[in-house]
């Protein structure tokens, strides 16, 4: 575990979901996020994404050629 960050103890549920979606450890995800290597894209509610109109705001997370997303509650 990364002692500087203390990732496992301090990571929130969203961090755990994104790390799992990216297929990496929570520690690696938090370290990459803090060092700004994780890129994010916000897509507003009502916008189109892959031919689907979004009912919620979507955040896409990209890291090392992988990507995952979370749909946010209002």
Describe how the helices and strands are arranged:
Layout: H1 7-10, H2 13-22, H3 26-34, E1 39-43, E2 48-49, E3 52-53, E4 57-63, E5 66-72
Antiparallel strand pairs: 1-4, 2-3, 4-5
Task: Write a concise keyword list for the protein shown above.
3-stranded antiparallel beta sheet; 74 residues; alpha+beta; 3 helices
Quick recap:
This protein has 74 residues and is α+β, with helices and mostly antiparallel strands. It is 31% helix and 31% strand.
Low-confidence stretches: 1-6
Specify the biggest β-sheet. 3 strands, antiparallel
Quote the distance from N terminus to C terminus. Answer: 34 Å
Integer-rounded radius of gyration = 13 Å
Strand line-up across the major sheet: 1-4-5
Order of helices and strands: HHHEEEEE
- Total of helices: 3
Overall outline = elongated
Query: What's the β-strand tally?
Result: 5
β-sheet strand percentage: 25-35%
The residue-averaged pLDDT reads 88
The computed structural class is: alpha+beta
The percent of residues in helical segments reads 25-40%
């Amino acid at each position: 575990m990364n002692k500087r960050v203390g990732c496992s103890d301090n990571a929130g549920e969203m961090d755990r979901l994104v790390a799992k979606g990216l297929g990496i450890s929570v520690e690696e995800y938090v370290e990459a996020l803090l060092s700004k290597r994780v890129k994010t894209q916000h897509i507003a509610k009502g916008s189109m994404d892959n031919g689907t109109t979004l009912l919620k705001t979507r955040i896409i997370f990209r890291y090392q050629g992988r990507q995952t997303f979370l749909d946010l509650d209002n």
